[in-house]
Amino acid sequence: YESFIYVKKENRPYFKLTAFGQEGSFDFLDNENIIFNANRKPKEGEFGSKFYKININGGEADVYLEFPINVVYVKKLNNGDFICLADNNPLFENKKLLKDKKLISKYQAYMKDNADYEEFNEVPFYYNGSGFTRGHKMSLYYYKTETKELEELTSIKYHIFEFEINEEENTIFFTANTDKGFISLSSNNVYALDLNTRKIEKIIDHKNITCEGIIAYKNGFYFGGCHNETGLNTDPDFYYYDNNKKKYDKICDFGLAPW
């Protein structure tokens, strides 16, 4: 399917900002410019992903960021660096594969020789239109703009669904699943990653409350949570987690939480 980015300004009709049809998630760089990921005419055998920059008033999109792995979403920090959510593919556990042309050729030959079967050791697995995804985990990375270095923040142990950054930009909150084999859709915990120490702490256990849709605010976050009395993720209430107090409080009661 095709995907475009549109702009709607106050008291003006909306208009299509991009035209290629492969545009994905976007974020604001400033009040006038956004960055977005898109798979624009990749070369055969090319790995990685690209993010483009474009002015919201229109114009040509220019390549702004390039990554050696499949990055699906980025958030810019005030210091100019980025926090990235990316596919931690077990096929690329040897990160040298992303830079060594001989290893890339060897990998492509292996995939071609074994193209007539697929091995599944984890469920659920998904077909995304170009192949099956299984055993893949979404991980967090720190991208240092000046040196173009990409640091892995979370190991393949965590399969991350979403993340937010606190106001002081020293903590990342993220929801993640750590199951192996059968992946339960109701076992996402919430973690806090200290950007100064790189330590990860579980702050909300799914056994106490399931959490979806986190939105950072000051040194904490709002989230929709429920205790699954009547079914999985039904009648969620609205909560705020305060990272200073290490506790959450209900804001909106009896299934009135917006999603």
Indicate the low-confidence ranges by residue numbers. 121-134
What count of helical segments does DSSP give? 1
Order of helices and strands: EEEEEEEEHEEEEEEEEEEEE
Proportion of helical residues = under 10%
Let me know the average pLDDT.
78
- Could you tell me the strand content as a percent range? 35-45%
Query: Radius of gyration in whole Å, from Cα?
Result: 20 Å
Sheet of most strands: 4 strands, antiparallel
Which overall shape is indicated by the principal axes computed on the Cα atoms?
globular
Strand order of the main beta sheet, please? 3-4-5-6
**Extended strand count:** 20
Q: Features of this protein?
A:
about 260 residues; mainly beta; four-stranded antiparallel sheet; globular
